[in-house]
Amino acid sequence: MSQTVDRALSILPLLAEGPADLGRVADRLGVHKSTALRLLRTLHEHGLVYRQSDQRYRLGARLFALAQEAVENLDIREIAHPHLARLNERCGHTVHLAVYEENEVLYIDKVESRYPVRMYSRIGKPVAITVAAVAKLCLADLPEPERRAFAEKLDYPMYTSRSTPNAPAFLKELARVREQGWATDLGGHEESINCVAAPIRGADGRVVAAMSVSAPNVVVTADELLTLLPLVRRTADAISGEYSGRTSVKDSV
Amino acid sequence: MSQTVDRALSILPLLAEGPADLGRVADRLGVHKSTALRLLRTLHEHGLVYRQSDQRYRLGARLFALAQEAVENLDIREIAHPHLARLNERCGHTVHLAVYEENEVLYIDKVESRYPVRMYSRIGKPVAITVAAVAKLCLADLPEPERRAFAEKLDYPMYTSRSTPNAPAFLKELARVREQGWATDLGGHEESINCVAAPIRGADGRVVAAMSVSAPNVVVTADELLTLLPLVRRTADAISGEYSGRTSVKDSV
DNA sequence: GAAGTGCGTTGCAGGATATGCAACGTTCAT
DNA sequence: ATGAACGTTGCATATCCTGCAACGCACTTC
Asked: Among the four residues A81, A249, B63, B214, which has the most C-beta atoms within 10 Å?
């Protein structure tokens, strides 16, 4: 591993907390100011860091562009999107697409029905991994030892009284999800929000992504939402088929 | 400037084009495979690149999270958002917020009325700089020599017959925009889309951002859209006032 | 089935390259 | 006017990165 690059990259999460001046960056990195300066300059030339008018540094524009291109190049997302949109048209609720990557599950697409407000704020954001239905599906597919090790390392914040409380409960839930091939989150993240989710599988049968339908229970009860399960599963299967190359676009009902 | 970091960062835009294997990365960088490997490993440890199942590398998840945090920490965006939402409620059209940074103008917020589809796809994306109304406002505020130099360097793609054709025309338009304090894009980017935009200024009077209202002319004609100009300008001024009032967090505590 | 090809990976020696130091230029507050 | 805080520069040292060559592995070819 390269020390110089390592230090330079450590600056990014540091700046993500908010703008910082040279001294602060140098301190946090544990290097001399002149060293930090050269690293920041290099980051700056690549547009990853921006120098605002008060001379402090913050994350730069290129970062957005990169993240943008990255998300647009995900083929699962591209394949899934029309299916998600169609599902949204039929049921009217919010539809999510998420993938597992490097100890995180994150939303990579979303189609929402009513509220345009802050829609972007979730795309690319890690999900609440211990409670989200899509997270359960992705993690349930990990090999057993890895799954266990991972569950042990997690925090289990009690978002609501129905949040997953600890590792054993989580592992038990994952086992059930793995068994039944779908998952729910009934008020585990926000009291009034329920989700049903289904897995999307690659050609080898491994879960490559998961999709969900979410709705507040002022609109539909959890039971009513569950009646959508067959539709959600069919959609997920259609995406799986198309992604793994077996099926073409037509055979979704 | 640090060579090692420079090389490492050059990998990112390369991967943004699509997944690549080690050999390809090494070739494009002009370094030995073993060197590329070590750089990629370091990027990997920081989550900026991901190694997919076929062993090829692509951009990683942390990139999204970083971009996410970065955009959420922009104080202009935070201040402006409620104003944009309110404007959207009143007129029903798409509302954009954009900033100039390092030779690019990019959208940092958007409130859309009807079509939830692919909403995120524009946030963080560079705008069509030669035609977009918000771009004109940002660039018109640059000091004259810089503005001229910049205009000379640009490409002038003819998106439509009404796109800005070349540097002289662009500079002339910028001068007019600067004069009148607002800008339009009447079918310069997409034939049927019109925009009106107004600048947001900091305490020193410099343009720090620009906002616009866009609508397809099947919904409202360009003339009708122009009747919104006073409302747009009032909104922009309100944001300017609030922004320059408590510019940084420290002096408002 | 054996030999060949392409790919990622490892350890190492040499030297390019990053590092910390000390000194200077500014800006701002006292 | 004086001092402090901060960013910036040039430079000598040695650290850390580089390219090489060899290896393991998977997959293709004859």
From this structure: B63
